Amino acid sequence: MDTRNPVTINRLDYQPTDWLIDHVSLQFELDPTATLVTSELTLSRNPAAGQESNGPGPGLTLQGSDCELRSVSLDGVKLAPEDYQLSATELHIAQLPEHCVLVIVTCINPESNTALEGLYRSSGNFCTQCEAEGFRKITYYLDRPDVLSVFDVTITADVATCPVMLANGNRVSHEVLEGGRHRVQWHDPHPKPSYLFALVAGDLAHIEDHFTTASGRKVLLQIYVEAHNIDRCDFAMSSLKASMRWDEEVYGLEYDLDCFMIVAVDDFNMGAMENKGLNVFNSRFVLADAQSATDTDYMGVEAVIAHEYFHNWTGNRITCRDWFQLSLKEGLTVFRDQSFSSDRHSATVKRIEDVRLLRARQFAEDSGPMAHPIRPDSYIEINNFYTLTVYEKGAEVIRMLHTLLGPVKWRQAMDVYVERHDGTATTCDAFVDAMQTVADVDLTQFRRWYSTAGTPEVRVSEEYDSQNARFHLTLSQSCPDTPGQSDKLPLHIPVVMGLLDQQGNSLSLSNGRALAAAVDSSQTDAQRGVLLDLTEASQTFTFEGVDAAPVVSLLRGFSAPVKLVHDVTDETLAFLMANDPDTFNRWEAGQRLATRLILGVLQEGRINADTLASLGQAWGLILADDSLDMAFKAEALSLPTIDTLEGSLEQVDYQALIAAHAMVSTALAEKHAEALCVLVTETRQAGVALLDPAAMSGRKLANTALALLTWLPESLWGPLAAAQYAAADNMTDRIAALAALCHGDSAARQDCLDDFHAKAIGNRLVMDKWFAVQATSRRSSIVEDVAALLQHADFEAGNPNRLRSLVASFALNNPGGFHAANGQGYRFLADQVIALDSRNPQVAARLVSPLGHWKRLAGPARDLMRQELVRIRDSGPLSPDVFELVSKALQ
Ligand code: TRP
Ligand code: ZN
Asked: What is the CATH number assigned to the segment(s) 457-520+528-560?
């Protein structure tokens, strides 16, 4: 694409396709540098296409790029060059009969494919990545998600290098050929768009198991990896079986092929891909064992396995009409994987983790140059729209529908959605239509969530009328302007809330809708609270029969993705921390108190002693409360991160914010130093299974305590960390100890780093951690340290995981280093983007985002960051991916 004249695609320009592909038969003659692809398309005119009155029918335009066209035949007759037009991105044939067969032969070079899109090589094996528009790098095709076709795939390759040859669906034949070659055939009976096509071939080992579906179908499950990883697949397999069972139990959705395969590859642009029957994964979301994976890694494997599996229905059986509808499958599938994890572990802790991510990263996106609705209106490069907004905010929108409908109607509505749209490509509007068929509430206004960018703000004021025993709660909403959107209309915001009396008892409320009880809830109706429908710009809710001024608990469970502005006293927040029956809001009250304390330092230059006393005391209660889940305690003892705090500020002076955060962290650690030391040494459970829930929670609490202690002099915690490193029998404790040591400058730091490195040799995921742990250190020499690591023999710029472990860890998880006052951090990142863009635009574009927020910066940092964007812009011809982000950021 010519980036001097980039093409913007608009949502409202959607047109149905003129042609359908009823069947496609693909033949691959695999060769590392010259793979021949023969594609036979059975075409017919689309009866639903816009009809031109008389005259010849429309021509056919197929997308294709980076593939060398060898020949085209129409109904058995080879076309001459003058019978078609070929450009860098399209193949056009002007005249075809209404039904015809087109055979296209292309030649592609997987070995030189560094963008990791289309057919490429990873560790000497062949694999594909076609979402969103990678199939066009394999052959000329109608590469759009609303063209569904039945695929037959034949693969021929050397037996020696490619003993394993996989594609979607069921394997229907295998034959050994002359010359050391062999051939397999795969048939996928389910019509699918090209982005779900997959092929994998190479020398892979696998484990296998079976799953019997609710209706009795026996499904073969296989996980393919490089042979040296074969012992690290068991957890992924059990996660897969749990996901399959969960989707049957919770949604009544069964698997629909005879086999389900997962392949792990080391070189992958994102997390994983839901290709029909053949999911391809970044190995980081498959491989796990005690010596290489942290508890967080295990939870990540489980969640991503579930996510991709759940796509079999929400994404594959029912797919997207066009890429603007991406959240139709991604928001819904994230919501489903979140529910799955929440059912298997602590629901509150899972919710806290999800909300932390949303606030830290999605809120930033919503307030930056790329702010877009969960259903965007335009794009230059669709790969740039696989965003936290489409995924995470998209999941929040689904969650709000779940809250508005209640669990029973939600399930009925999902049944309607599946029933209506199975086997088709559809839209977000059609999804809400399905919800509306069973919902009691009118969802017309709710649909604005799909078209509104930006994070709404809800302001709260309270008034207690003691004479009439009435309590008035006024909620006012507004949503900030975002690029291309201003004066937004009010949204339908579900606000779950409750009132407490001064003793902490829940009041029965005379206003609001009742909340359906969760199946195993031990809570009373009053404790659960009610649902208020906030639909106006400003709305007052009155509660009768309130005998004394109550304490309000708002937005329980974070019932809507908004910023709440509610001015209450420190005492009220401390009271909610101790008494709110909604555990999420107990955590939230602590976060608000901590935020107030940190932002107070920014304003007053010192810590407010009263607020510190309140929070310190509340922490003391939490530390002493043995009835609390240790993982919850860990969350309650974790301060909001810099990227979350930033959301409360108009203009950000990072150096000042980081200093204020450090000051508060230090003060709290000092106050509770003794208790924290005890937690580090005494919370771990000996002699229980690695993934025992109490053992995992114990590690989380102990390592949170250790991280807090690192704000104090190293003499206090250094020996604890070194001892923990030496004694650790699992990766969670080992890496937490190493991370602590990395902030300091002790001899133990270098010793442990060297030891970790030596043990990481031969395990790429562990080596990634060695880079990441150094990239997130608070050492003052961090920018030079990171630059030096770029030169390390084990650094591989061509491997996305390795690159992210150093560069993205630094830019996203090391605010002190990235925002270094002299702008060195920004320059470092810009250099990496420039170096990577011509090799892998998709990954390069992901690295640009942190530089896009220069307008929010205060002081000299603002211009320093902007200069780096300008430098990228002027560095030469850019990919459309990087071009779009840089030009939008500079607008
Ligand atoms: N659809 C995938 C998921 O969310 C993600 C995905 C989109 C992807 N584009 C990709 C993965 C490119 C790898 C490369 O599950
Ligand atoms: Zn997905």
From this structure: 2.60.40.1840
Which pLDDT score, from 0 to 100, does residue 2 have?
Answer: 45
Pick the CATH number of 318-450 from 1.10.390.10, 3.90.180.10, 1.10.260.40, 3.30.200.20: 1.10.390.10
Tell me what pLDDT residue 52 has.
57
Distances in Å between the Cα of 783 and the Cα atoms of 754, 778, 824, 859 are: 20, 10, 7, 20
Q: Which of 133, 226, 308, 646 is catalytic?
A: 308
CA atoms within 13 A on the CB side of 812: 17
Q: Kindly identify the ligand whose nearest atom is closest to the C-alpha of 285.
A: 1
Question: Measured in angstroms, how far is the CA atom of residue 849 from the centroid of ligand 1?
Answer: 18
Ligand 1 atom nearest residue 132's Cα: 9
Under 8 Å CB-to-CB from 554, ≥6 apart: which residues?
460, 495, 497, 564, 566, 585
Q: For a pocket test of ligand 1, which of 192, 386, 801, 842 has the largest count of ligand atoms closer than 8 A to its C-beta?
A: 386
> According to the model, what pLDDT value does residue 782 have?
98
Among candidate residues 112, 1, 109, 114, the one with its CA nearest the CA of residue 63: 1
CB distance 274 to ligand 1 below 6 Å: yes
The CA distance from 738 to 134, in Å, is 40
* Closest by Cα among 626, 631, 622 to 590: 622
Nearest residue (by CA) to ligand 1, atom 15, is 273
DSSP 8-state secondary structure symbol assigned to residue 364: H
Residues in the chain predicted with pLDDT less than 50, given as ranges, are 1-3, 53
Q: Which CATH class is domain 1-202?
A: mainly beta
Please indicate whether residue 536 is annotated as part of the active site: no
pLDDT of residue 1: 46
Distance 315 CA to ligand 2 centre (A): 8
Does CATH number 3.30.2010.30 belong to domain 204-299? yes
- Cα separation, 532 vs 629, whole angstroms: 30
* Ligand 1 contacts CB of residue 270 (under 6 A): yes
Residue 308 CB–ligand 1 contact under 6 Å = yes
